[in-house]
Amino acid sequence: MKKILVLLLFLTACSKIDISTSYKGQESVYFIYNINDVYSGGIDSITYTFVDKASTVTQDTVWLPVRIAGNTTTYDRAIKLAVVANQTTALPNTQYKLLDYNMPGNAFATRLGVVLLRDASLQDTSATLTLGLQPSADFPVLMKDTLMGDGAFYNRNQVRIIFNDRLIKPGNWDTYLVIFFGTYSETKLRFIASVLGVSTFPSSGPNALGYPTLQYYQNTVRNALLEYNANHAALTDENGNPVVIP
Amino acid sequence: MKHTINLLLLLILLGAGCYKDKGNYDYHPINDIVTTVAKDSFQVNQFDTLRISPAIAGLDTNRLSFEWRVYPITDPGNSLDPGKIVVISHDRNLNQPITLKPRSAYYNLDFVVKDTVTGVNYFKYMFVQVGTVFQTGWMLLEQMDSKADISFITPAYAPYHGVYSASNPSSPLPASARKVMSISTQSLLGTLNMVYFDGGGYTLDNTSLQVIGNYTKLFYAAPELVQPYEMIKPSFYSYGPYALCGGKVYGLNGLFASKLFGTAFTQPDSQGYTLAPFAAGGSSFGAIFFDQAHHRFLYDGGGTSTSLKVFPQNTTMAYNLNNVPLQMLTMRAGLGLAIAPTNWYAVFKNETNDSCFLYTLNANGNFTTSPVAAAWQPILNSPEVQRSPDYLFSSTVKQMYYAADNKLYVYDMAANQSRIIYQFASGENVTALKLMNGVITLATWNGQSGGGTVYYLPVAATGDISNNTYTQKVTGFEKIVSLTYKVG
Questions:
Q1: What CATH architecture is B137-423?
Q2: Tell me, what's a Pfam family for it (chain B) (predicted)?
Q3: Does A229 touch chain B (CB under 8 A)?
Q4: CA pair distance B382, B356, nearest whole angstrom
């Protein structure tokens, strides 16, 4: 009996198994999170501000990277993206616009553009726009929870965009930045940010800016202000005072 | 039956053990190669030829191939580069100009002998230290038809031709190259060696003249118009140095340990400015510039200012600093202490004819007792003064040197006239000149390839050339358009 069993074991080892060369599971699409965003509101969140954009910028597009599980196809496949109403404060067509979304044929990944509109209301408050992927004919399955780099589980079906146009007076303005930029005004900071592309100027910590860098910033903004004033009405702040860089 | 099979197998195995081995077990001596050199470490200056002739012993030394390997050769632009091995010769005896970058550490130098029959490599390990003669001496910028180059003269008057092209075979210098310079920035940048050409420039390594980077890398952001002409720290009291580029001035705040030049200085008023590529400076005004577009002098606001200022209107000084309707040809330090000369001289040319004028500025002065606008005069009795490739000023007497064609002149400011103090052969024209430590170093060119010569002309107390002759003469250059003394 034992000999028969051993013989059977050997025989089973000789059986041929066909290994499929293609994916047999169900198709799905999911967001690619940026681990760096864990420092700016959560790994599933993107923060955006219009503050450091030129005043002529009235809208901008945030790109959400997505990838598919499963095979590519030769044709475009629709991706269904919807607002998660109970987690959203942003106003459609006033503060944002969604577009039509597709996974292009023969592609494993693409980016979904969300148009953010520079509405005046964003100067007073931040808006939150939460978007979720929905099951569709092309991508019927949603991803399950995944352990991500910040130690938490995410289903990778949802992403949050927090955006504003709101200025915050740097805490070191009156003690340090005043040397380079003079008296604070929101108009001045907005102009500075639009020229330099930055609106914070740390004077301590690992990202502290040295004196020469701030001097370079000062000189750059001063030249830009002169050019602006030469081509427009002189820039005046919210208090009615002319904007001046010393 | 089972036992019979086992016995049969055993017999087969035993039978195989009786097979006679017909292999070749004769011993032959191998072609063991031994190389011997008199010493195993060498010192050589860059671009000098290293010669090593090893003795080679072995049974058959006619079937060998050779490699001279040097390592590590690192990428100067990558501080983390571990380096690579470079074969500098395949000859049996090394007889090779060494172009390796000079450095204090030794390079490994391996002589690899390969037996081409057996494929066995034999190594002789040696070391080579590459020094430089380019730490101190004259850098000469030579213009040719389709390119430019930099040659070098050591303090011992030994010429090294084509140093730039040898060090930078993949970065040829454009024919538009116009200035070579070496400046101690008195900042974290240390000494900067640079060459400027139309639309750009390079910074050069201090020991090899290898290109370190593009001129624009010296700035936080590239200047709006990249046309470098000058870099100068005109005063101990200013925070420069200043880079004069494309008609604008850019400052490096050495006091606060900046390593980068900032944005163009802010214009003094709505007129804007376009600076001539010169600067003066002193204890009162750290830097004075000339706005060629609006024919006025401007000054750096001082301290950590990054704005230019207009001089206040003043009618009591020798001339109006805000109205000099002439074309600036030069502005250089003259009479006074080197650290803060009381006299800076600016030579101007009339924009519609060849008449020239000498303006004196006192950057240590004020607007009353020691006026900034100290003096001016037309330059009289000075032939072709407007055509000089450069203008040199004595720090001890009120004299200016200039050249035109094959003649070197001294201009006596008090007498307001010039005289020839040296004359070269006809057709051998002066192309560049500098005054340093009482010696005029002067380049001439006779129009022929290799017809460039550098002369050393010591200046006597009278302003004439001592003994009316040169002390040294170095020949064999192309047309030298700029020269500068480089101090490591």
A1: 7 Propeller (2.130)
A2: PKD_2
A3: no
A4: 9
